[in-house]
Specification:
The complex is a heterotrimer of chains A (304), B (529) and C (293).
Chain A: H1 2-10, H2 12-30, H3 48-51, H4 61-65, H5 69-100, H6 104-115, H7 122-133, H8 139-146, H9 161-186, H10 190-198, H11 203-227, H12 235-242, H13 249-252, H14 255-264, H15 269-297
Helix pairs in contact in A: 5-9, 5-11, 6-9, 7-12
Chain B: H1 2-28, H2 31-49, E1 64-70, H3 78-93, E2 95-101, H4 107-117, E3 123-126, H5 132-137, H6 147-151, H7 153-158, H8 161-166, E4 168-169, E5 172-173, E6 176-177, E7 186-191, H9 192-198, H10 206-218, H11 230-241, E8 244-245, E9 253-255, E10 264-266, H12 271-286, H13 300-305, E11 311-315, H14 316-329, E12 336-340, H15 342-345, E13 357-359, H16 367-379, H17 381-389, E14 397-398, E15 404-405, H18 439-449, H19 467-485, H20 492-506, H21 508-526
Parallel strand pairs in B: 1-2, 1-3
Antiparallel strand pairs in B: 3-13, 4-5, 6-13, 7-11, 7-12, 8-9, 9-10, 14-15
Helix pairs in contact in B: 16-17, 19-20
Chain C: H1 5-36, H2 40-46, H3 58-63, H4 67-100, H5 107-119, H6 124-134, H7 141-145, H8 152-163, H9 167-175, H10 180-191, H11 193-209, H12 212-217, H13 226-242, H14 257-267, H15 269-279, H16 288-292
The chains are: A mainly alpha (304), B alpha+beta (529), C mainly alpha (293).
Chain lengths: 304, 529, 293
């Protein structure tokens, strides 16, 4: 305690500077966390949060009893890993190219255009997917027919959908993520590159030995940040593309869509909260573990 | 200087944030129980203060501002209409109402937030299809039993006894139902002009539907149900076999027919379902709908309008609206037809009154005044017309047949006024539209002649003892049941077996036992067979 | 300076990769523009087309049917975006700076305290109760402004950007007798422009795109921000189409097709104006060397 007060006095300005942020999270995140208790009650408006009867883990039962949880967790984790890694690597590649390339207007224009998909709603993405892949009039099948090939009914097969979904997710986030890496590259001092140039290093070498290593903390940070949400899915993305098509669920069902279907007919605050808590807990354990490992290897890269 | 400014600023910030936080902490200490007690407190106290004046009329000497919520969106002219309304209310009841709307897309979220947070809402649109019974069971609404005779005497007298019973949960009247007997059976809208042109028999049963679809597909080369075909097929299935949903739920548990309410089954285990799934497989293979029909979000009605679809599921009033829209705006379509599914078994069932209604949430501060406003709204034609049809001359005109033209001749179509006014609907004051589909009156007459009372919707179930099984069953139903129903599986027999196994594993038997128990209790009470 | 062979190879690769990706991003957008200018029936019948079969401005007319309202909504959104971005950037960068200071003892604990909020949440209802019942912000601009000011993501990203600033700068400034806030304002902020521009962009986008807070908190029409107004226009178009008034079932369907696309175009406005402005700060040279020299 005394250490803390000494620290407080010594760094009082620093404490003051971070205080607004801490208060913000207390008011808008920590206090509302009392709502987690909903997961353990049978909610009624009569009782409210604390007056409703306590039911223990009963609200979690629907997740575990169905036997689908393993497949759901696997799907959710794999999709998110694909989103995280494919997305980050592509964003990094774009950022590196854009930072090194000449042609001011080309760069500016392409950067702006890459940001456009961010504004396209999932509803419209769903419409694109339909227009591309439907059996009767979809662009892909029209092309196949014109080439004299056998048309392929995407909506009856599970195989292509993982690629389609990953593609559209990565596509939507491309511009957004690229900006982060671009900003990080801009933080790298020119001196390093100048020195390397004088030493005769070509552009590939400079990227390999200067830019990439210096981007590593950012890359690891972004991965760590995303891992916490590894069990939380992009509900809208899956819903708009797959909808009610049970035929595709083996490959496309994630926890969020599953919970939505389970509760769509008879919504229950307790069960909804319970599902969210399960997702949070899983992410929490994962992040703390991975962060611990990262910390062992390279303290500076750790998230906390 | 700047440093000092910053210090001052940060201190101000800190103080502000801290006070906000402390007050929040203080409140949240007993948040749940506290707020509900507050609610109860205001109930009893307001009941005491709301004394009556000498002539027996409720005292309105205190000016009151009420907070109302309706489902859906406002019309562009709603502010004008509400301003006019408030002028009248201020004069008659010394009251004004702030009329809020939930918007259509997220009304469920908003209902949950409004009711769970204990906001002071004095009136809310309520309906069996907007979870009225669920919210009632969870204690979201105020008991109106004692308030009604005093503050809404006309309504109290004029709403039929049965309708009050339908909105009673645990002996408490929790809503004011609309009084507008109405039939909303499912059915199919189809292109009558094509049927005549293709020379297929009139649509009277399942075989003639199949012949029509087949002709459309093979001769016209049009996919008959091009959008999402789920509703078309699912309602057709239920109506064809007379499988009745219980308690308004659309899951797998049904009563086997209207005449045998106690015969409750999970329909996927019936031979009827097997037969149906096989037939639908042939329909899907023939291309009556597309293979992505469960993914697509578009209504099949849209395709009819562009000449690329031939069938659309609508309930009877919906069909009437759809057909009159086509008659007005799509002249290239010569003639539409409608086949109500009531014709499979030759009876129709009217809606419950609470298909639309108004309820007062627990935390209302002025339930008495709110009821008085509703009383006016239902019974005074001046109020009723204003809030239902808008401003006369501007949004509608009324002819001497008592029919409404909205918007008035020659006005911008956007002037046609419509909000979710169904909660106070009262047939006595309601006016039919002059541009309604000509077939509508005939249909209504047909339904009235074969009317049987609604016995399945009022069975109230909250599934509390089996809610996790229910969630699992609903999930299985969507994942495996829907593709089967749509004939999209490669091997029907295998798929049915798999579906049944999954349902068993999910606990369908326990859900069935629960429903059976509730149905028996209900049937005993009502003296049903 | 003569370009090396490897540089040329690199450029060719770069142009190919970037051009392909750009095309993939541009084509759908083109289709949306074309769709927004098409007749509704064409879209329903034939789907997306590169060039509209029949030009129609109906969708845009529907969006701008009440120009005064849209104008007002733009005002609200622009005001919120500016205020939110400025305030958010101020608090985010302060917090990020404190967390980036390696000599600050509790930085890991505080970073965890902040990050933890992204993992667990009490859900929508308690958050709503906090804002409506305790802070009393129902139907207030505060409810749109304050709850989105800070995000753990932004603070941690900010911290990461600032970490690349050498400690020696802070050390030498301290020796010169500069206070902590002065160091932050005079030295750290100018050195962090790419990071500030990035976070500012994200904040701006978040405020610009936010319709959800208005959806649950705002009940007065004149306070609607643009996104929420558009959202409502879409929703009511859907209702008009279903003839809901004559149809008392709860089947509400997706909005009219071309309107969806016109709305997508209208909301994309900011990126066209804002992004080039932000790009000015993505320039090398605003780095350590420049300040030292």
């Amino acid at each position: 305690m005394r250490v803390f007060f000494n620290e407080l006095v010594k760094n009082k300005v620093l404490f003051l500077m971070i205080l607004p942020a801490l208060l913000f999270f207390i008011v808008f995140s920590y206090i509302p966390m009392v709502g987690i208790y909903y997961a353990f009650t049978n909610f009624s408006f009569d009782g409210g949060l604390f007056g409703s009867p306590f039911v223990g883990l009963q609200n979690f039962k629907f997740l575990f009893e169905s036997g689908a949880l393993y497949n759901l967790t696997k799907n959710t984790v794999l999709y998110n890993l694909a989103f995280i890694f494919v997305g980050n690597i592509l964003q990094l590649v774009c950022a590196v190219f854009l930072s090194e390339m000449a042609g001011k207007y080309f760069k500016k224009a392409t950067q702006s255009i890459m940001f456009l998909p961010f504004f396209i709603s999932f509803v419209l993405i769903g419409a694109f997917v339909y227009n591309l892949f439907n059996f009767e009039t979809g662009a892909v099948n029209t092309l196949l027919r014109e080439l004299g090939l056998q048309p392929y009914d995407f909506y009856l097969h599970t195989a292509p959908w993982k690629y389609i979904i990953v593609f559209f997710n990565v596509w939507k986030g491309l511009g957004y993520g690229t900006v982060i890496y671009l900003a990080a590259i801009m933080g790298i001092s020119d001196e390093y590159h100048e020195a390397a140039k004088i030493d005769g290093a070509n552009i590939f070498k400079r990227i390999r030995y200067i830019t990439l290593p210096l981007l590593r903390p950012t890359f690891i940070l972004l991965i760590l940040l995303s891992l916490g949400g590894i069990l939380k899915g992009q509900f809208d993305l899956f819903w708009q593309i797959v909808g009610n098509n049970g035929m595709l669920y083996d490959a496309t069902d994630i926890i969020d869509t599953y919970v939505y279907r389970s509760l769509a007919i008879n919504f229950d605050i307790g069960m909804g909260t319970a599902a969210g808590l399960f997702q949070s807990f899983f992410g929490f354990v994962l992040v703390v573990t991975v962060n611990w490992i990262v910390r062992k290897v390279q303290k500076d890269y750790a998230l906390f | 200087m700047k440093k000092r400014l910053f210090k001052l600023l940060s201190i101000c910030m800190t103080v502000a944030m801290l006070t906000a936080m402390l007050s929040a902490c203080g409140g949240s200490g007993g948040s749940g129980s506290g707020s509900s007690e507050e609610g109860k407190g205001t109930d009893s106290s307001s009941k005491e203060t709301a004394a009556t004046t000498d002539d027996g009329k409720p005292d309105t000497s205190k000016k009151v501002v009420l907070n109302w919520y309706l489902l859906g969106d406002a019309h562009a002219d709603t502010p004008k209409v509400v301003a006019e309304w408030n002028k009248m209310l201020e004069q008659d009841l010394n009251t004004t109402v702030k009329l809020n709307f939930t918007t259509w897309n997220d009304w469920q979220t908003k209902y949950n937030l409004l009711l769970a947070s204990g906001e002071k809402v004095d009136m809310l649109f309520a309906s069996s299809w907007a979870d009225f019974f669920k919210y009632s069971k969870q204690g979201a609404f105020l008991d109106l039993t004692e308030l009604l005779p005093k503050y809404a005497p006309d309504t109290w007298k004029e709403v039929p006894e049965q309708d009050w019973k339908d909105v009673s949960v645990g002996g408490k009247i929790l809503a004011v139902p609309s009084t507008y007997p109405e039939y909303t059976p499912d059915g199919l809208v189809y292109r009558e002009d094509w049927r005549e042109e293709l020379n297929v028999p009139e649509i009277t049963d399942l075989d003639s539907i199949e012949k029509y679809l087949e002709a459309v597909k093979t001769v016209k080369k049009v996919t008959p149900i091009k959008g999402k075909a789920w509703n078309e097929v699912n309602t057709l299935f239920h109506s064809y076999y007379d499988f009745k949903n219980i308690g308004g739920d659309s899951g797998v548990i049904v009563a086997k027919s209207y005449d045998t309410p106690r015969d409750v089954v999970a329909y996927p285990f019936t031979t009827e379902f097997e037969e149906w799934a096989k037939r639908m497989k042939t329909w899907a293979d023939k291309g009556f709908w597309t293979s992505n029909t469960l993914s697509i979000q578009q209504e099949s009605g849209d395709f009819i309008k562009t000449g690329t679809g031939a069938v659309y599921w609508r309930n009877a009033p919906g069909a009437s609206g759809f057909i009159s829209d086509i008659e007005k705006n799509y002249k290239q379509i010569k003639k539409m037809g409608y086949f109500p599914f009531t014709r499979f078994h030759n009876y129709a069932v009217p809606n419950l009154g609470i298909n639309n209604g108004m309820a007062i949430p627990k935390n209302s501060e002025n339930p008495e005044r709110s009821l008085m406003v509703l009383e006016k709204l239902r019974n005074d034609p001046k109020y009723y017309n204003l809030m239902t049809y808008g401003i006369e001359g501007e949004n509608y005109t009324l002819d001497d047949k008592g029919e409404i033209t909205s918007p008035p001749e020659g006005k911008d179509p956007k002037k046609g006024y419509s909000i979710a006014s169904w909660g106070w609907r009262y047939s006595k004051n309601d006016h039919p539209s002059s541009s309604r589909w000509a077939g509508e009156d005939e249909l209504i007459a047909e339904f009235k002649a074969e009317s049987k009372p609604e016995i399945f919707s009022p069975i109230l179930m909250d599934y509390q003892p089996v809610k996790s099984q229910l969630a699992a069953v609903n999930q299985v139903y969507q994942q495996f049941g829907m593709p089967l129903m749509m004939g999209l599986v490669p091997d029907v027999d295998k798929a049915i077996e798999n579906y049944r196994n999954k349902l068993k594993a999910a606990g369908v038997d326990e859900v069935l036992a629960y429903v059976q128990k509730e149905v028996n209790a209900y049937a005993d009470e009502k003296g049903l067979k | 300076m003569r370009a090396e062979r490897s540089t040329i190879v690199f450029y060719i690769m770069g142009y190919i990769v970037i051009s392909v990706l750009t095309l993939l991003c541009l084509l759908p957008f083109w289709l949306i523009i074309s769709g927004s200018l098409s007749a509704e029936d064409d879209i329903i019948r034939d789907g997306f087309q590169l060039v509209p079969q029949h030009f129609s401005f109906d969708a845009y007319k529907a969006v701008f049917s009440n120009p005064m309202q849209i104008f007002k909504a733009y005002e609200v959104t622009i005001g919120l975006t500016l205020a939110g971005t400025a305030l958010g950037l101020f608090f985010t960068s302060m917090a990020g700076y404190v967390l980036s200071r390696k000599d600050f003892k509790y930085r890991d604990k505080l970073a965890f305290f902040i990050y933890f909020t992204t993992l667990f949440s009490g859900g929508l209802i308690p958050w709503y109760i906090m804002i409506v019942n305790y802070l009393n912000w129902k139907d207030s601009y505060m409810a749109l402004l304050v709850p989105s000011l800070l995000s753990a993501w932004n603070i941690i990203l900010m911290k990461n950007f600032m970490k690349s600033i050498p400690d020696s700068i802070v050390e030498s400034a301290k020796i010169d007798g500069a206070g902590e806030f002065t160091i932050y304002r005079r030295l750290i902020l100018p050195l962090s422009t790419p990071g500030l521009a990035t976070i500012g962009l994200f904040l701006g986008l978040a405020y610009w795109n936010d319709w959800f807070s208005a959806n649950i908190f705002i009940t007065t029409e004149s306070k609607y921000p643009l996104q929420f107004l558009l959202y409502k226009i879409l929703a009511s178009a859907a209702v008009l189409k279903t003839n809901i008034a004559g149809n008392l079932g709860a089947d509400f369907k997706a909005p009219a097709e071309t309107l969806k696309m016109a709305v997508a175009i209208v909301v994309t406005g900011p990126i066209i104006f804002l992004y080039p402005f932000v790009q000015r700060y993505f320039v090398k040279g605003l780095t350590i060397g420049a300040v030292k020299g």
